[in-house]
Write a structure and sequence with these properties.
- Helices cover 47% and strands 14% of the residues.
- It is of the alpha+beta class.
- A nine-stranded antiparallel beta sheet has the order 3-2-1-13-12-11-10-9-8, sandwiched between helices.
- A hairpin with a 2-residue loop joins strand 1 (64-71) and strand 2.
- Helix 2 runs antiparallel to helix 16 (474-486) and helix 8 crosses helix 10.
């Protein structure tokens, strides 16, 4: 009776401490930590995750998480945490959709390997062999880029899917460099060969066979309401815009100062600042538009402008209060004798006050606005538009681990044929590989504006984990969860 009472009292305490101190326990060779939470009884793992995940979400300010764990080739845990939308406090549910970003590349690779199995695609033949018209700009690239090159990120094509270049930046198959554009090329080839849109093709070859009913590359009208709201820190948005702005502003201002000082023999006047301002603003707009596309760039630029106006307003209020206090206006005889505060110093003080008042806002999480009117019609993008749920991706992992639908031969080729990235990482046909001694884990990450995700598989244990989040800070959270569940002190990210 006493033993049962002690167990009842101590079990929750043990789970709480284990969830918080698992890395330290692992380092101390605690037998319960060997192999990570996967080695625990599943009910204890579930209770520990129920403590650990919300605690880390709060620390990292991650609104929502979808999580699924596979062990011995079966889903042993599926959980949701937090909110899919903080504005209306809607909770994350098993039906909540998350943007998966580059997770879609791994799914596209699976679809391509199913076409290899059916002899519709060939790993080492030029992808252009069945195209009626070239997709690439260069005939040499057209004749040399293969499916293997694309799946192992050795195609030489770029990674800017917002404004994809159809030309290579280095010779195909000469080195590794992540390429989202390579998967756009593959998407085009698959559509031409199948004679149907990419999303429909993937539904036939991947989503329906694997019962991934909630996954796709194009949001259906009814699915939009199920999509979680993505969040990014205000500091990230402002850095994205104002870093290139400040760099170019400083360069142009320095050039104007040198011209005025050494050629025109005069000081800079206030009107001279207009050209650096216009130049910095124009360059920042161009950089953000080029890297993010029109709709996302409009969101980032809009936030940057609003913050500049808010900062100017705070500065004006601070200056007015200083004026009311009598510090910002000249008093008879004081300024002329040089004993009072100058107007320039007061302006600087007002600006410092405004900046100090604004700084706490930099840590705020801003909801990402999709601006559907600017995006136009939904279009499939193998490298960027994938959306899914944790349970769907768990089913995908199971088939990669066991090869049930894809077939053992294609599964073995997909995981076994690889190229080296460095001494620790290599890349298989659609998935990254991390090598820790004799232990291998297969992985891929996903990142879009306001969403971060991570999928890690351990084929030797027929296990894996998928973590989907609706926050830019979710990347760190996903790594934390994966390390604790798998019991591997690693980071699944290319150096």
């Amino acid at each position: 009776m006493r033993a049962a009472l002690h167990s009842t009292i101590l079990a929750p305490l043990f789970l709480f401490l284990a969830a918080l101190l698992l890395p330290q326990a692992a380092q101390a060779n605690d037998p319960r930590a060997a192999g990570g939470m996967l080695a625990w009884p599943h009910d204890e793992m579930a209770r520990a995750l129920g403590i650990f995940v919300p605690d880390r979400m709060k620390a990292l300010d991650v609104p929502g998480v979808g999580l699924a764990i596979v062990a011995d080739g079966a889903i042993v845990y599926s959980g949701t945490f937090g909110k899919e939308n903080k504005a209306n406090s809607a909770p994350v549910t098993p039906a909540t959709l998350f943007e998966g970003g580059e997770l879609g590349e791994a799914v596209a690779a699976y679809g391509a390997m199913s076409m290899v199995r059916d002899r519709l695609l060939f790993l080492d033949a030029p992808l252009s062999r069945d195209l009626p018209a070239p997709w690439l700009s260069n005939k040499s690239d057209d004749a040399s880029i293969t499916l293997r090159n694309v799946l192992t990120h050795r195609s030489g094509l770029g990674d800017n899917v917002a404004h994809p270049s159809h030309s290579t930046s280095f010779e195909p198959d000469s080195r590794f460099a992540r390429s989202g554009v390579g998967f756009l090329y593959l998407q085009h080839v698959m559509e031409v060969i199948a004679g149907e849109p990419f999303d429909a093709l993937m539904k036939t070859r991947v989503f329906s066979p694997l019962d991934m009913a909630s996954s796709g590359y194009v949001l259906a009208p009814g699915e939009r309401a199920r999509l979680a709201q993505g969040y990014v820190p205000l500091s990230f948005l402002l850095t994205t815009f104002y870093l290139p702005f400040v760099i170019v502003f400083a360069i142009i201002l320095g050039a104007f100062w040198a011209i005025a000082r050494f050629m025109l023999q005069r000081r800079l006047d206030p009107p001279d600042l207009l050209w650096p301002l216009f130049g910095g603003f124009g360059f920042a707009v161009a950089i953000v538009w080029w890297g993010l596309g029109f709709a996302s760039a409009a969101f980032v630029i809009g936030v940057a402008i609003i913050c500049a106006l808010v900062l100017a307003m705070l500065g004006g209020i601070a200056y007015y209060l200083l004026y009311v206090a009598g510090l910002a206006r000249a008093r008879d005889g004081v300024i002329s004798r040089g004993n009072g505060p100058s107007e320039r110093i007061i302006v600087v003080v007002a600006g410092a006050i405004a900046l100090g008042a604004f700084l706490p806002a930099l840590s705020w999480n801003v909801p990402v606005q999709r601006l559907s009117v600017l995006r136009g019609a939904e279009t499939a993008n193998a490298a960027a538009s994938f959306h899914t749920t944790a349970q769907d991706m768990a089913r995908f992992m199971i088939d990669i681990i066991d090869g049930g639908k894809l077939g053992a031969d294609m599964r073995q080729r997909m995981l076994g044929e690889r190229v080296a990235v460095d001494d620790r990482f290599s890349w298989a046909l659609g998935l990254g590989i991390r090598q820790d001694g004799a232990h291998e884990t297969f992985w891929t990450r996903g990142s879009t504006m306001g969403f971060e995700s991570l999928m890690v598989m351990d084929p030797a244990r027929r296990s894996g984990i998928i973590i989907l989040t609706n926050s830019r800070q979710g990347g760190e959270l996903a790594q934390d969860i994966a390390r604790n569940v798998l019991g591997v002190e690693a980071v699944w990210s290319l150096p």
